[in-house]
C-alpha cells in the first residue's frame, strides 16, 4: 500500500488532489468562487468562502489546523487567497492548478445542482467581448466609442498582468452570483473538524 504525502509545492494538480483526498481525510478543500458558482458545482466535501469575503475572516481561516487546498474556477482567485492566507500565517496551504476546470476535465467527482450558472470568468469574457464588439461597431457612427473598446481591452491586459479582475469583482457582487451566502461559523466548524457536503 502506498501512502500519499503532502507535496512541498504550493500548486498541485487535479490527479494529485484526488489522491490526497483519498489518502488524507484531514485535508480540507476551500473553494473561493462565488456562492452561486459553488452551488452550481463543487468538489464533494469542500467549503465555500468567496474571495471577496475571505479578508474578513483571514485570521480565523489561517488558524485552521488541517492542510488546505484552495480552489477557484481556473486558479487566479485561489492564487490571491493563497497570498492572503500565507501572509496571515497559514501553513500547509496549496492551490489546485487549473481550478475546477482542471478537476472536471480530469473527471473528478463533483456535487452538481440543477442550476446552470456560468462561471465568473465566462461571464467576464461575455461582457468584455460584447462591449468591445459593440464599441467597434458603434465607432462607425460615433468615433469616440472606440475608446470604450480600448478601455475594456486595456482592462483585460491589466487583469492578465496582475492576475486580478475588476470586472469579475463587480460581477461577483450581482445577486445572480451571490448564492445563499457564506455561513462562516459553519465553515470554520467544518474546516476545524466537521464534514462538508
User: How many β strands by DSSP?
Assistant: 7
The sequence of SSEs as H and E is EHEHEEHHEHEHEHHHHH
Overall pLDDT, averaged?
85
Q: How many helical elements?
A: 11
Q: Any idea of the CATH topology of the largest domain?
A: Oxidized Rhodanese, domain 1
Task: Kindly estimate the percentage of residues that lie in beta strands according to DSSP.
Answer: 5-15%
Name of the CATH homologous superfamily of the largest domain = Rhodanese-like domain
Rg, Å, rounded: 18 Å
Uncertain runs are: none
Largest sheet: 5 strands, parallel
Features:
Oxidized Rhodanese, domain 1, 197 residues, alpha/beta, single chain, five-stranded parallel sheet, 2 domains, two-stranded antiparallel ribbon
Describe the structure.
There is one protein chain. The protein is an alpha/beta fold and 197 residues long. The chain has two domains: 11-117 and 179-191, Rhodanese-like domain (Oxidized Rhodanese, domain 1, 3-Layer(aba) Sandwich), CATH 3.40.250.10; 120-172, no CATH class. Helices cover 51% and strands 10% of the residues. The protein has helices spanning 14-23, 35-40, 51-54, 58-62, 76-87, 99-106, 120-138, 146-162, 166-172, 175-178, 184-191, and strands spanning 11-12, 28-31, 41-42, 47-48, 68-71, 93-96, 111-112. The strands form two sheets. A five-stranded parallel sheet has the order 1-6-5-2-4. It has a two-stranded antiparallel sheet with strand order 3-7. Helix 5 links the parallel strand 5 and strand 6. Helix 7 (120-138) packs across helix 9. The protein is elongated, with a radius of gyration of 18 Å. The relative contact order is 0.18. The mean pLDDT is 85.
